[in-house]
What does this fold into?
Amino acid sequence: MIETAIFAGGCFWCVEAVFQDLIGVEKLESGYIGGHMPDPTYKQVCGGDTGHAEGLRVTFDQTQLTYGDLLDIFFATHDPTQLNRQGNDIGTQYRSAIFPLSEEQRSEAEAAIVRAQPDWLAPIVTTLEAAATWYPAEDYHQEYWNGEGQRNPYCLAVIPPKLAKLRKSYAGRIKVG
It folds into this structure.
């Protein structure tokens, strides 16, 4: 059964890199969600005035990877205690947010926050936001880590520690090859 989930956890390049090699992930798309301006551009979203978050839309096979699994991985691979930032990326566009696409997803997200809280010293500030219009990011943002990201100093500093944590905690969930 194919389902969709939408997460925001800082720079979408970093979130995409974490989810791309998971068994059961069928498709990933970086984009913008949760703002008030139609058809925003990367430059506009980065300016912080559109209200959008940099997000990732994950299409996954629920028989191989559950929504709960995705939530647990989401909370384990970014800092959900930082309000409107991830590391040096500061602004509401980098907020930690989940955009449930159903009441069932909302309930599962609420449970995941409770499940994840003991792993963090500070309170989790991840928001649950109404699923708003999704705007795909420009083409050059898609599969960024697999291309330009491997040469981008920012990505090289931020993504490998996330991937190491993923491999250590979720080794059985990662595609081989």
